[in-house]
Amino acid sequence: MTGIPLVVDLDGTLLRTDTLHESAIRLLRDSPMDVLRIPMWLGRGKAVLKRHIALRVGLDPTALPYREDLLEWLHAQREGGRSLVLCTASDMSVASAVAAHLGIFDQVIASDGVTNLAGSNKADALIERFGDAGFDYAGNSSADLAVWAHSRRAIVVDAPDDVLRHARERSEVEREFARTPVGWRDWRRMLRVHQWLKNLLLFVPVVAAHRLGELETLGELILAFLSFSLCASAVYIGNDLLDLESDRLHPRKRSRPFASGAVPVWRGVLAAPVLLAASLLLGLLVGGAFLPWLAGYFLLTCAYSMLLKRLALVDCLTLALLYTIRIVAGAAAAAQELSFWLLAFSLFLFLSLAFIKRYAELLVQAGSGKDKAHGRGYYTADAALVMIFGVVSGYGSAVVLALYLNSEAVMRLYRFPEIAGGTVPILIFWISWVWLQATRGLMNDDPLVFAVKDPASLGAGMAFGAVLALASAGLPW
Fold first, then answer.
1. Per-residue pLDDT tens digits for 300-344
2. Which of residues 207 and 459 earns the better pLDDT score?
3. Which pLDDT band holds residue 471 (cuts at 50, 70, 90)?
4. Which residues contact 65 (CB under 8 A, 6 or more apart)?
5. Which residues of 275-291 are buried (b: 16+ CB within 10 A; e: fewer)?
6. Alpha-carbon distance 290 to 283, whole Å?
7. Contacts of 295 (CB under 8 A, 6+ apart)
8. Exposure string over 52-83, b if 16+ CB within 10 A, otherwise e
9. Does the pLDDT of residue 298 top 80, yes or no?
10. Percent of the chain with pLDDT over 70
């Protein structure tokens, strides 16, 4: 095995992410006032910026997304007797933590708060230490071209085609680790398009008022649906960026695009405001009182992402409100007056669904041997009590529905109101069914997403709709 040391870059090479980007996001979450100081730090140099952020934010090296194929190859190189050097533009504190965790590097060279060790600065440092062409170098970006020009051989990792071409021009390429481009599936998962189904709740008020056939109203609601969906995607992106560490410690959420490194975090930082701006433009087209409710939804979701989701019970109450706001916003878009019954029913039902979401997460965490849910205000031992809260809330919604079906409003809306009472046992069945699935560990993290894929839930939904249709039109004979 050659005695030439193998120098390895960190961000985008050994890691499927950029530690500076992630640290800046953590700073925004944990110390938002310090974000205002970033321009001042940057004015004194990028190395100063990295040092100040690193001093305030501690990344957990055990939770970072490593490039496993490269890491496996590096282990083989080390077992063959080769010296490995971690050389990165990240701050020394970050690089040292990663090196200590992996335990395969003989040396660590990194930015020191004075010199930003990137591009030509990195090349100069390596030449001074190992000599020109006295090292092999593994990198991934155009900034590494200056280093490859002075390396003996190049190891190109997940690099764009033009970077790979220029690397071949500057050095002998020893090994290539294929690039994994961001595809449509990654974007779809990043936007969580499947979660847009929740925004069909906007149509509930006009369905309940038997106004779905009004084309003008339907057009307003379609615009409102698109506006809410884009806003929700912006919020999901922001939530995923702020929750990277917790997601990486979760058995299922670790595969999300940002947590896994499939999509760079900077793309999310750019995409979220674009989606939000598009949402607001569509909201302006809807008119009426819709936009204030859209803004309220956005602000409440921001509060949830930044703080409320870490508070036990408050998190579930907030989730229930976020579901209910969709119904209120739909009524505002359609200029439909909301009844107390619909609001009360919605709050109880969505509170049950929020508790089932948290209960399912606690079961997963308990199955992983954890005593506390990371980033949440619950211990895994709370699962039984959370289940009680959720079941009681769900049955409370059934009680509200039964009382509503005996009101004067139902007498006016339905030709055969007595038939509508058949919806109550259907709702009780469905609430019992989803909680039964949750206790068996079969519940998706989101109960609404589970419902649209579950045959029993779909059957209950169709039966519920059929009963209401019969109550409206009567039997065909």
1. 998 998 888 889 999 999 999 999 999 999 999 988 888 888 899
2. 459
3. confident
4. 15, 16, 17, 248, 259, 260, 261
5. bbebbbebbeebeeebb
6. 7
7. none
8. bbbeebebebebbbbbeebeebbeebbeeebb
9. yes
10. 98
**Residue 290's pLDDT band (cuts 50, 70, 90):** very high
77 CB contacts (<8 Å, ≥6 apart)? Answer: 1, 6, 84
**Cα dist from 115 to 34, 119, 337, 419, 453, whole Å:** 22, 11, 63, 77, 54
373 pLDDT more than 60: yes
Distance CA 358, CA 373 (A): 10
Length of the chain: 477
Could you tell me which of 289, 300, 302 has the C-alpha nearest to residue 328? 289
**Residue 14 token pair:** 């050994």
Distance (Å, rounded) from C-alpha 7 to C-alpha 19?
A: 18
pLDDT for the residue numbered 11: 95
**Cβ atoms of residues 115 and 89 within 8 Å:** no
State both tokens at 314. 């408050």
Token pair recorded at residue 123:
């090349």
Nearest to 249 by CA among 355, 375, 356: 375
CB atoms within 10 A of CB 237: 26
Q: Which two tokens stand for residue 363?
A: 């079961």
Give one DSSP letter per residue of 245-265, joined into a string: HHHHTSTTGGGSHHHHTSS-H
pTM of the entire structure? 0.83
In what helix (H) or strand (E) does residue 85 lie, and over which residues does it extend? strand 84-91
Single-letter amino acid, residue 123: A
